[in-house]
Structure formats: structure tokens, C-alpha cells
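ARCHIVE CARD
Drawer: 12
Card no.: 0347
Subject: one protein chain, sequence and derived structure
Cross-reference: see card 0346
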Amino acid sequence: EKLGKPCLHLPHQEGIDQAVQRLGEFIKRNEIGVLNVAGPRASGEPEVGEFVREVLGSVLSRSK
């Protein structure tokens, strides 16, 4: 947001379905062409990798 770019935080605690919904809406609303994904280290949050794979996989499969 500091650089004038849209930003979205998806905490894994809100669940896969909610994150998929929010990310899909974010991508459409902001006409995202390139998505930068960042998060904590897996050593600090071991479940984050699976969460990201599931959310991105669901969003990308819906966009086809």
C-alpha cells in the first residue's frame, strides 16, 4: 500500500473457503495481472505452505 499497490492479508485462521473468496474478489476488483505472495517462514508457521497451495490452487482453477 505504501507504493500505491493493492495489498491483501489472508490469515490462515479465517479458513480456506473465506480466503479463496476474498482473494478471487481482490484479483478481479484490482485487475491483478501479477500476484506477489509473501508470508512467514515455514519454520515459524508450518501450516502456511499448505494453506497457500490450497488457496492459490482453488482461485486459479476457478479462473480457467
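Annotation on reverse: The helical segments are 16-30, 48-62. The chain has one domain: 12-62.
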